[in-house]
Amino acid sequence: MKLKIFGKLTEIFNTDEYNFSLENNISIAELKLMLDKEFPRLKETTFLVAVDGLKADNNQLISDTSEIALLPPYSGG
C-alpha cells in the first residue's frame, strides 16, 4: 500500500511517501492506530485521510491496493 503524506506531516514521517503491505482489509481507525505506534508524534497531530482521492471516515475499509493520503488541516476559499 502506498501512503502519500502532505504538508507538515512529512516532518513526522521524514518522507512524502510511505509504503507497507496489508494482509487483510482494515479500517481507517485501525490504520491510524498502527501509524500511531510507529510514529508517536502523529497522535498529537490533526489530519484528514483520503482514500483513492476521496475524504474517508474512520469506519471506511481499505485494502492493500488502496491509495491513501494523509492531509493536514486546510482552510481558505
Automatic annotation (TrEMBL):
InterPro entries: Beta-grasp_dom_sf, Mopterin_synth/thiamin_S_b, ThiS/MoaD-like. Gene3D superfamilies: 3.10.20.30. Pfam families: ThiS. This is ThiS family protein. It comes from Chryseobacterium gleum ATCC 35910.
